Write the structure tokens for this entry.
Amino acid sequence: MIRFLKLYRVFVAQFIKNLMEYRIDFLTGATSFLIGQVTNILFITIIFNQIPSLAGWKYYEIMFIYGYSLLPKGIDHLLTDNLWNVAYFIVRKGDFDKYLTRPINPLMHVIMEKFQFDALGELITGIILVIYSSIKLKLTPGFGEVAVILITIVFGTLIFTSVKIACCAIAFWIKRSGSILQIFYMSSDFARYPITIYNKGVRFIISYVIPFAFTSFYPAAYLLRGGNGILCAGKTMLISTVIFGISIIIWNRGISAYESAGS
């Protein structure tokens, strides 16, 4: 673990140096993500100018859920964005060989190699929405609620990362799995809103098949309307641990099946 943290620090330092050389690109990327989120918020606001509530959920409650959904997704985006390159390019071009010839765990190496600071736009939007909607809703979280927030954000991030690991690992068999990853990852958009607005089939899928509802809706619903915090946090931890374990199995089997390829 100490060796991993030292390597992680070296990779971060190197990436920040590179980032400073391309500040305009960084600012452009972060701003584009920020504009995208603002556009979505404006769309929701326009809808709520026409209706008082959506399936019993009021405007600021939905803003809270939406903002909460951006926190684990933004952290995952910041730390593990290089997995997209595995899915789209690295395996197809045969460049994955370098990860197998170095004395670092290949998965850790892939993750540490790139940090996507564009995600700061996503994180800033989420933090602002959660704080602002909390003030409007007069939420006063205690120690228990804060603990649930921290636990569900950490393990919610693990859910996003696990889905990416599993989907990008499919590239080891088919050479390119970016489209598969795109479909699975974008399904997280369903969890930006109260899942009670969907039919039972969709609710089941985003709760227990691709469990993005545990990254946002369930913890946000607990904070907004109460419930069993221990159960909420416990379910999130359990489901994220299970899906992470499955993703690692797929990843390891994929590496075993990997054959160097080139374009």
Observations:
- The chain is about 75% helix and 0% strand.
- Residues 2-257 form one domain.
- The CA atoms of residues 98 and 170 lie 19 Å apart.
- Residues 229-257 form the longest helix (29 residues).
